[in-house]
Amino acid sequence: MSEGSSHSLVQRIETPGFPFVPMKLAALLSLVLAGGALAPAVPAPASHLPLPLAGADMTFEPGTTEITLDELLQRLAHLTGLELAMTAQTQQMLRSIKEPLEFAEPVPKDEVYSFVEAFLAHQGLVIAPITGGRRPILGVSASPAGGRDAPLDALYVDEADLAELELHPALLVRLLVQLKNIDTRQVQTQLRQLLVDNTGTSQIVPVGEHSLILQGRARDIAGLTQLLHEADKASAARPPAPANPEGPAK
Asked: Which residues span the domain enclosing 65?
């Protein structure tokens, strides 16, 4: 695929509806026990991220055993209508890195982003939307915090999108986490031991006493957010310290 070729924006969201049919509990149980109750497929929730959907599966020629990261991104651009923005150094690196493919089976269209991003994240790259609209531009960077690459602005996301964030291993995002019990200023210090990142991709900034701004790869941020909420619940379950502790015995 030539670098100057244009891509048409293909967006198609399939959300088939399933009517709700009331049914008595006894009848439902009898159907389940008889093995005749088949639950309808639940449609995937509509995407809330500003990323155009892939219009078709990603296919490979029979016998394909390896592919460059540059070719993977070009195929993603073709399927989604994205234009790619990166420095010459990053593009040269993408062309030089080949990833092995164990199988040449097609990648389902709803897994295309996850598939491509997994290879990018494995090589330390990140992506982030630069513009939207009819000709959306996706930034690709090997140095998210700057350096030779221009820094990428992380995409602001909401906690309601955590399930979707888990599907994006290389998407650079920023999220505000609000907790109720633990002191986030202490959490920041403790998390530094867990998150060792010399590239500047992962950032943790306390906001007041019970809020944190998290930045990093979407899947990592989703997992960290869930971990923080579990720790917050565990902290609430602890018995409070006595208000007026007794002094030492005389």
From this structure: 49-153
| Cα atoms in the Cβ-side hemisphere of radius 13 Å centred on 248 | 1
Q: What is the pTM of this model?
A: 0.75
Strand arrangement of the beta sheet that strand 172-178 belongs to: 155-157, 172-178, 211-217, 203-207
- Can you tell me the distance from the alpha carbon of 62 to that of 124, in angstroms, rounded to the nearest whole number? 29
**Is 8 contained in some domain?**
no
- pLDDT digit string, tens, across residues 115-138: 999 999 999 999 999 999 999 999
One domain for residues 70 and 132: yes
Q: Quick one: tokens of 201?
A: 């991709």
The tens digit of pLDDT for each residue in 160-169 reads: 999 999 999 9
The answer to whether 56 touches 111, Cβ cutoff 8 Å, is no
The answer for residues whose C-beta is within 8 angstroms of residue 136's C-beta and 6 or more apart is 9, 50, 51, 52, 81, 82, 83, 129
Give the single-character DSSP code of 238. S
Domain's final residue, options 153, 178, 213:
153
